[in-house]
């Protein structure tokens, strides 16, 4: 910033797109506008529609209500669903191979991955990590 110019060009990568791992290089996958977002709360992943069946976009108040209701639920992720986010922390080659092995080669998991990768965006709605004298693990 300082004396330099600022650009918002990179914002185009925030919505309706996904970084996809390749064996040697990642690529950015552009998607058509999506009618859903993905919310992650305490390890549980939710697909949330952002418009009704007639295509009317939900108001901010409606989306806040939906999000608040999800945060009150006592859902618990099970099985591989608890590990989805950790796949993206792998090295590129491992991420590429694990994505293929656990998602692309499995019909059910491939469908779940498509929901995540085609979302307008993915956001964590977990509470405050309470930064301070204690570590985040505590």
TrEMBL record:
It comes from the Eukaryota. InterPro entries: Carn_acyl_trans (IPR000542), Cho/carn_acyl_trans (IPR039551), Cho/carn_acyl_trans_2 (IPR042231). GO terms for molecular function: carnitine O-palmitoyltransferase activity. One of its GO terms (biological process) is fatty acid metabolic process. The keyword Transferase applies. Keywords: Acyltransferase, Transferase. GO terms for cellular component: mitochondrion. Residues 6-128 form the Choline/carnitine acyltransferase domain. This is Carn_acyltransf domain-containing protein. It comes from Caenorhabditis japonica.
């Amino acid at each position: 910033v300082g004396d330099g110019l600022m650009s918002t060009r990179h914002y185009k990568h925030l919505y309706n797109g996904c970084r996809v791992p390749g064996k040697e290089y990642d690529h950015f996958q552009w998607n058509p506008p999506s009618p859903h977002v993905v919310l992650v709360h305490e390890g549980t992943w939710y697909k949330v529609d952002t418009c009704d069946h007639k295509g009317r976009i939900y108001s901010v108040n409606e989306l806040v209500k939906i999000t608040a209701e999800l945060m009150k639920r006592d859902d618990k992720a099970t099985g591989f669903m608890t590990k989805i986010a950790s796949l993206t922390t792998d090295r590129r080659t491992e991420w590429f191979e694990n994505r293929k092995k656990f998602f692309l080669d499995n019909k059910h998991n491939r469908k779940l991955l498509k929901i995540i990768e085609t979302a307008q965006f993915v956001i964590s709605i977990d509470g405050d990590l309470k930064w301070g004298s204690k570590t985040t693990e505590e």
